[in-house]
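Entry 14. Ran structure prediction on the chain below.
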Amino acid sequence: MYKTEHFTDSIFYQMELTAKYCRSLGAQVFTKLNFPISVDEYSALDVIMMYDGICQRELAKFILKDRANTGRILNSLEEKGLIERFVDTKNNRLVRKMVLTPEGQKIFKKASESLRAHLSSIPKILTDEEKINLKVLMQKLREGLKKEVEMKI
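Output, structure tokens:
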């Protein structure tokens, strides 16, 4: 069994630190490429693009933000004309859903293409096989943690 003396030796610390580096890289790339949206807004557009008509609560779960932060992101996207929100019913309850506007689709596509091009220029740190293995291991760990953790999003 793997034993650690200090929290900074733990897998949880290493994952958190890696996530912070990834987040910083994302913010730097978005700034460098002069995108009109933030990393969080891009994440929201990505999910809305995949799940047309998704409600705010479901979106919050995907982007790992609480409902208040998700609301702020959506307000910003709506002000920029990138999404439209509408009221619908789900399980006999009124919910706000959203779709990308044509401008939102255009911005998302342009950002995605620029990101792919920029990130492909970064030296490969992991092989494709290592990436697949890492993803599988992280999914396995997350599934195990889901049984122990109560997420309130």
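The chain is about 60% helix and 10% strand. Will compare against last week's run tomorrow.
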